[in-house]
Amino acid sequence: MTALLGLDRLTPLILNKTGLARSRSLVPWPPPNPTPAIIGRDLPHGTSTPRLDPDDALCRRQASLSRPLVEFLALVLASVLIGRVFVAEAYIVPTGSMAPTLLGAHRDIFCPNCGLRFALGLIDETEPAGRPICPNCGHTDFAQARAIDSPGDRLLVQKHTFAWRKPKRWEVVVFAGTDPNDHEAFVKRIVGLPGESIQIRDGDLLINGEIARKSLAEVRALRLPVYDHARHPVDYDLYPRWQPLHGEPSDPLPTGWTNEGAVFTRSPTASDAPNHLDWLDYRHWEPESLRPGPVRDFVAYDGAGNSGDHAVRDLILECEVSPRSDCPVFELALHSGRDRLRATLPVDGHGEASITLDGQPLPATPL
């Protein structure tokens, strides 16, 4: 079992070329004196002075320059062979079983509606795995869209990492199959360690009966984008994701929210009150049906109709907030079924952050 140095792309090592300086004599050729003296000995009487053949000098000069080049290439070849045997080895990912972390042969498609670039898997490097659909805006008309066919990702695998330490959960590893006659290598992500009981229930991974929790760094490494408002779709008004909600849905109040491109701005209104928060409510549109619904495990790499069967409960909201001087708090609420999670963050320097679940306080851990 071997660990990957990187999860996304192989960065090739580019060797800088070494310039070979060639000196030029300041003496013109041929020399002005046809019979120069040879230092260190006298010529016999009647013997003509030997002359240097220009072709022989050029050959000797080329030989003196080619020898360091040959030695350098031999050193590079030896280093590559030694590195492959004892340090690392390169692989190409042929299939999309690890997509979207690692991609096999795929087609990069540029969505004309929101500008997102996404990958669609290819079967036998030619046939699309399914009908292309943009995971950000649900656009499906790509007849005139720009697309580029790409081979599988290239990996540089460190071979002896686990000789010094044990594997860790969530790491991506390369390992050989159980058939000694089959030299095919496999790449997968570790979820279970020796002695553990593994179970998948409703999309949650359970280790010995408990949900496997990820650290913040692990969550950020494994997250997948669901919707990016910075890539504002052309038809956003038809399927708005963010909608203002001031007061109660049954008795709405005038909102102070306005939207321009990727930025939402709120201005005070006459109906502002501490018990009437002016929310920005996110409504998810399922990419395949373009109907409001839960966030599902849809992966654009598989194409339309081949994924997205299970609802996803682990969600992240990433945004930049620039509060005004008269804004005391910033609040975030997440609803899942009957559960109501609410976080209050003071932005005026007074008070403490608080998190409640169905009205009951939860312990808050600083990041």
Features:
single chain, 367 residues, alpha+beta, five-stranded antiparallel β-sheet, four-stranded antiparallel β-sheet, 2 helices, globular, disordered N terminus
What does this structure look like?
The structure is a single chain. The protein is of the alpha+beta class and 367 residues long. The chain has helices spanning 54-86, 216-222; strands spanning 2-4, 88-92, 106-110, 117-123, 127-128, 147-150, 154-158, 172-176, 185-189, 198-201, 204-207, 210-211, 242-248, 251-252, 257-260, 263-266, 278-282, 329-336, 339-346, 354-357, 360-362. The protein has two helices and 21 strands. The strands form six sheets. Strands 2-7-1-8-9 form a five-stranded antiparallel β-sheet. A four-stranded antiparallel β-sheet has the order 5-4-3-6, with no helix packed on it. A four-stranded antiparallel β-sheet has the order 18-19-20-21, with no helix packed on it. The protein is globular, with a radius of gyration of 33 Å. The protein starts with a strand and ends in a 5-residue tail after the last strand.
